[in-house]
Each structure stands twice: as C-alpha cells, then as structure tokens.
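COMPLEX REQUEST
Ligand: nicotinamide-adenine-dinucleotide
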Amino acid sequence: MSSVSNKEAQNRITELTKTINRHNHLYYQEDKSEISDYEFDQLLAELASLEEQFPEYQDKNSPTLRVGGTITKEFETVEHETRMLSLGNTYSKEELLAFDERVAKGLGHRSYTYFCELKFDGVAISIVYENGELVRAVTRGDGFRGDNVTENVKTIKNIPLYLKGENIPAKFEVRGEIFLPIKEFEKINAEREANGEALLANPRNTASGTLKMQDSGAVAKRRLNCYFYQLLGDDIGVDNHFEAMQLLEEWGFNISPTYKNCTDINSVLDYIESWREKRHELPLDTDGVVLKINNYDQREELGFTAKIPRWAIAYKYKAESAESELMSVTYQVGRTGAITPVANLSPVLLAGTTVKRASLHNANEIERLDLHDGDTVYVEKGGEIIPKITGVAIDQRKPNALPIAYISHCPECGTQLERKEGEAKHFCPNTTSCPPQILGRIEHFVSKRAMNIDSMGTERIRALINQGYVENPADLYELESQKDRLLGLEINSDQYEKSSDGYLYVALRKALFSITEGIALSAIDKYLTENETLEQSPKLKNFSTFIRNQNKKVGQNIASLEKFIELLTGLEHDQIEDFVPTSVVLAMFVGNQISVEELRKISQKNNTVHDIVLTFNFELSSDQEDKIKKLKGNTFQEGVISNMLQGINASKEQPFEKVLFAIGIRNIGENTAQILAQHFKNIDDLKEASIEALLEINGVGETLVQSLQEFFAQETHLQMVERLRAHGLHFEIKEEDLPQLESNNLEGMKILASGKLNHFKRDEIIDVITANGGTYVKSVSKSLSFIIEGEDMGPSKKEKAEKLGVKLISEAEFMQMIDKQ
Ligand SMILES: NC(=O)c1ccc[n+]([C@@H]2O[C@H](COP(=O)([O-])OP(=O)(O)OC[C@H]3O[C@@H](n4cnc5c(N)ncnc54)[C@H](O)[C@@H]3O)[C@@H](O)[C@H]2O)c1
Ligand SMILES: [Zn+2]
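STATUS: Structure written out below.
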C-alpha cells in the first residue's frame, strides 16, 4: 500500500530527477557540491524507491539508471572496452545484511568470500597498457565513454609508464582511484591563503578539477596519487580478485595495504568497525568500505543492473558529529569588507582532528540556529575543511543565556556595518581605512600584473598596515623616509586575534613562552599539540606538570603560571581557544605601572604588542624588555627592509597602463587599462573625457563609465594620484610604449566600420585604423569622420548615418586612404 497519490508521486519523481541531475552536473562537471554526499544519497534513494512503486513515471534517462558523469568537449572522447559502473551504496547495517541475503540467494549457497577495501574518495580512472607500456588513460565519463586524459595521468609519479616483470599480458586494463593526499591539499590551501586566493573545498573536488586541466605542467605540480583496485583483460591468468591484486602489486602498481578477504558478512562488519576511526590516519580521504565477491565466476553469475554490479556494494560512513560548547563568536573581515562570523568552540575530537572553530556563514545562520551564549552545539565535518554547526541542544541551554547578538560595528575599524537588501552578508563600508580592506587594495597594487613589487608579501603588508605605516598606495613611496622606524616592526601572521568587541588577543603559545624562563618555544608547542583536546583551563593547570618535567627554574615558572591563571580568571573575557587577552600577559610584566583593565582598553585600539608598548610608553627594565620581546611576533630585519624599499623604488618604472590598473578603479581589468591608456595617453585626458567619448571606445561600457566617474569624483583618489605622480610614477604613456604607426594618414579621424569587410577580420580593422593614426569608434554619432561601409551594412545604421550627415565610404576607398591599393 502506498501512501502517496499518483499525481504526487509523479511530481516528486520529476522534481527529484531534476534536482539530482543538477547536483550530478555540479559534482562531475564543475567539481562543486552544494549538499553533502549523504544528502545526495538520500535523494537518490528516495527516487529509486518511488520509481519502484511507480515505474510508469520513471524518466528513461533517470539518474538511477545511469552513471552520474559525462564526457567533456575539452578532451578526445574514448569508448571503454568494458563499461565503468557505479556502486550501490548504503549507510546501514540492515541493508548490508539484506545485500548479503540477495547474494546468497543469487548463488544458491553461502560458500563465497568478500574482498573488502576502503572506498577511496577521488576520481575513477581506467588505464590501458600494451606491451608493458601505458598507452591510454580515460576518465569514467558516462560509463560508456570517457575523456582521454593520458597526458595528465602520465605526470602522476607513482603510475608506471613502463612495466618490468614476467608474464605481463600483451594487453590489459587497470582501474583505480586518483586522489590528492590530504597533506598536499593542505599545502595548496596554505599557499592560496597566503596569496589571498579562494580556498579549495576538499581533496576530491581538487583532484577531479586537476585531472581535467588543460596544462599537464600544472597537473604535475599538484602531486596527485593513485590507488589501483581492478585488473581487466582476456588472459590475465587468475580467477579471483585477491590474486589479481597481488599481480598488480607485483607489476609495480600502487595498492593500498588496507584490503582484507572476509569469509562472511560478520567479519565484513568487523572490518567496517575497525576502520571507522582508524581511516582518518590514512594519507587520503576515504568515505566507506567496498565489499566485492572475490571469485570471478560467482561475479558473473550475479551480474549487473544498468548502473551497478550485483556482486559489490559500498558501505558509507555517515558524517561524524560531535557535541561541543560555544565559547564565543568572533567576526572576520575579508578583503572586500564582507563579515564572516566564526564560532569558537571548546575543543572536541571529530573525524580524527581536533575541532575548535566552526563557520557560521552569516547572521541568518546564527538566527536559524537560534544560537545562545554557551550553547551546547552539534558539529559535523562533511567534505568541507571547516566544520559546521548543524544544531543546538536546546534542552541543555543555560538558564538566562542570551541569544548571540550580531555585531553592529566592524571589529577592525569600528565603522557601522551595512547589509544590502537581498544579501546575506554584512559589510564594512569603510573601504579607505579598514585594515583588511586596505590590505586587499595594497595587495592588488603591488601584484605582479600591476606594480610588480614582489618583495611585498601579504604578511609584510599586513604588518605595515596594522602599525599605521600604510593606508594608501602612495604611502608605500614614503616608507623610504621612515626606514629607521621600520626596524623591529612585528610581522604577526598567526600571532593575534581580535574578539568580537575588538580586544587584542595573543597566541597562548607565545604567552606561555614569555611568562616562563628557560623553556623552548618548540617544547611548549609540543605540549600544546599533545593536549590539543583539552579546554583552556585544564590545559593551563596541567602546564605546571610540564614545567616540573622540564626541570628549569621550576619554582619561579610555577609561580608565574599561577599568577597568570589568577589574572586570567579575574578578568571576564570572551574565550577564544589557543588565544588569551594580550592585556593579561602584559599585566604580568608591567602590572605595577598600569591595571589590566586599562591595558585592555589600550589593546582595543592597537593591533600588536609593539603598538601597545609604544602607545603607553612604559618604563622598562632590560628584564621586562626581554619578556616583551618573547611575546612579540617576528620582526622586520634590515635585509627585508632594504629589499622591500628596492622593489618599491623599481616599481616607479612601470608604464602608465600598469599604474592605471594598479590604482584600483572598480571594473578596470588589465585589458581595459591598456585600452584606456593607449586611447587617452595620460590620466588627465582620461579624467576629463566625456561620457560620449568614453562610450565610443571599443571595450568600454556603461558600468565602466560609472566606475570612472565615481573614482574621479572622490577627492581622496585625486590626492592619491597627485601624491603618486609626485613620487615619479608614470601617469602618461611613454613615447616608446606607443605602438609603431604605419602612417599618419588617418590622424585625428574617428572611424567606424559596419557590415562585412573583405580584407579584414572583425578586430583587425581596429588595429589597422589605430596603426594609421585614427581612432576606432563603435557606434554611429555626429562626431564620426566617416563610416566604412561593408557588405550588408544594417539599414538602420545606414539611415542614422545619413540623418546625421556622416559620410559613408567603401572598403576600396579606405584601402586607398591607407596606401594599400
Ligand atoms: N554531493 C553531491 O552533490 C554529489 C553529487 C553527485 C555525486 N555525489 C557522490 O558521488 C556518489 C556517486 O558517485 P559514483 O557513481 O562515482 O559512485 P561512488 O563513488 O559512490 O562509487 C563508485 C566509485 O567508487 C570508486 N571507488 C573508490 N574506492 C574503490 C574501491 N576500493 N573499489 C572500487 N571502487 C572504488 C570508484 O571510482 C567507483 O567508480 C554519490 O553516492 C555521492 O556520494 C555527490
Ligand atoms: Zn572595517
């Protein structure tokens, strides 16, 4: 008996089919996921069950009938000799037992074994070898046909190009899973973060995207890896999977050592349990276990459906979830001013790593969760790097807990936040002096394609901004005169955090390092890693045992630690795991001169210890100075400074078009900057240009015109331009940068070409006009000198030209004007 009506079922089937197809497209073609694999599998299971009840409504291309991927246009298409299938999957033990029942029934007996392996989360690949040589590597595609990615696969170090050994068949195929090791993935993301690029979501999507790159050199840099799990061929001489895997290993293929032959379903269940946690120690992401009938004849007997083999199934581990306590919410300000709230959690072990933070995305998410101070929350780690909060244990809410109040002002600069209609994120509108936004602008200014000052990495720029040396690109050119003060400036990558109310926090490791004596920072780091899952308070208490074990100035160090804990507990403050209020640490050293409360206020206005020390102008003994030095981040040294200044000086030689791109007028890309520079030759003419004159230029549209107007309307921008000009930057084109003219025949003329020309391709005519001193204009107006009339020129254009009295000339006449005939 079904509980859904026919109409409902039909509608739901259509809807599910559409939704699943969309997620398949995102996942396989764009390497993105909007929902978790679990959610996706739920949708697919729902569709399969409805289709079973109402087969009449099943789409003939239903995603339950086909493998989810497809082929692309970027690579040659290759037909698979043996189809590449998907796998059935389940998340439950009951369904696994039901699968085993079906197998037993299908074979008519119970004497079979299961070969179990982990399910590697990567991209399927089929590789064909002929006479011991790798000849072709193809993606799974739609199962029948895939993309030929041989050149890319050949860059993967541990996939053999040639095989050595005995009895290697003349031709065979191997299948495996290409993956990106977690370490490599993290390395790439760390690099991207340092460069201010968007982070990649997870290793699987990255591996998939990498394999489809057009540039094999770029693929080689990514250090992909591969595990093989299938051998196919006519004369491979084995009759079961276990032996096939041993052959693969002998021939030099990379096999994961995690496989096991299980004699019955109960030992499969044991295998599954034994890997549930341990799999997180493996070098790659895995999402389950694949069990396959070991014997090939038995496989044949069981057969296939349209999409999956009946002799194998994947058991998938559900995303793990854990409970944690919300300590505080901090707010990060991005380079564009976008605010992202982050939940600081009491540390909890989840999927093999200690989780201390979770993304909250935006204010809506906080509202949706109805998050309150100190709530017990459920965190889950799916395919994403940063875990998310999936819910709140309302019954455990603390009495009188207040709902999390979203901040109204920017934690970095104090400006009132804005939220545009229809947008989820809040923004800090202070584009000119909010530190992270200045960082975005300066990074753009110094970037390779702009001013090309490569001695100025993110951390150095951040240091200069945080300490008030740079707010505007023009400030860079004034650093030279402040050279002496730069020495000793803090570079503070991971050293500081700001609480939601703007108080400065410093890394716990540096705090412990500075309040103790005779203990190395590396030893402290080791202690903190080993005690990662402890909350801050027991972590600090246990530190006394560590001090004793170190056996250096024990009495004095323990006294310091106790004083520190006392100060910390005495001050009500937001908890940020691994960070402590800077004011408390400084109070340890200069508490006789100033109270913690006062230090705290100062810390709200400053971004480094160096800053605070300068602001208050403490009287410091050499002992106090040493301690403060231990608390500070790395500092600018002489070599760094001269290197940086040299780079800044050299950038003065960049041509006008680069400068125009660098000053950050919205919507001006590299190309547009070049077009505008060539056209107007200097910034003053660009600034004075009328809207009409701008719109006549090929490549300039309304949005750009508006951005230009907005830019030049702001006094601060004009001042910046003047300051930069005074420092010797080029705001006009140099003679030698102008393209060589072929003639002056078209000097001062504004010309449009319309209709099909016989001697020139579409954009070629523009170059020819420019090369002869003329200007190409893209629309009909009175200011035109003439129009070159090509074949089939549009009648309305012609009419307009006649009405405005603009002359039309033929292509032949034009050829004569430029001496080409
Ligand atoms: N989140 C999303 O939006 C989204 C969208 C589409 C697909 N998906 C995920 O992808 C799955 C469907 O992908 P699929 O059809 O490739 O199925 P699958 O990935 O669940 O199973 C088949 C694949 O497993 C791989 N595999 C890994 N280890 C293996 C081993 N030891 N032995 C054999 N095969 C092994 C092979 O590449 C094989 O092609 C879905 O179940 C879902 O989890 C997610
Ligand atoms: Zn701000």
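REMARKS: The chain is about 40% helix and 15% strand. The longest strand covers residues 320-333.
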